[in-house]
Prior knowledge:
mainly alpha, elongated, about 140 residues
Amino acid sequence: MFSHAALNASLNGISGVLLACGYAAIRNGKIVVHKTFMIAAFAVSSVFLVSYLVYHYRVGHVAFGGQGWIRPVYFVLLTSHTFLAIVIVPMILITLRRAWLEQFDRHRIIARWTLPLWFYVCVTGVIVYLMVYQRLGW
């Protein structure tokens, strides 16, 4: 059975793939394709955020059960993921706003930071899911 937590991890993973495709498109000069992928990544990430908040409202805190060396690894990963997940939201909005207003020079400046941080949050979200729910690493 496909759980709500698995859905959230899938949405995170899909967002990461869309970001990578958007990056590849802009590197190849395909601006319209880039725009489409980035808007799709934003939409999927938005659905993820709502789904994540609903899940944790209903379920509450889910504890990590790993012991030994994996425990500090998990908490470092979780801490960086959580901090950057908070920081990335306004960065995404600013980046998208600058593109929407066709302020492409300013868009590029912040997008160079937004894209890798957003991608990191997507990937680490999947890793956190695997560590907590699939017991990856322990």
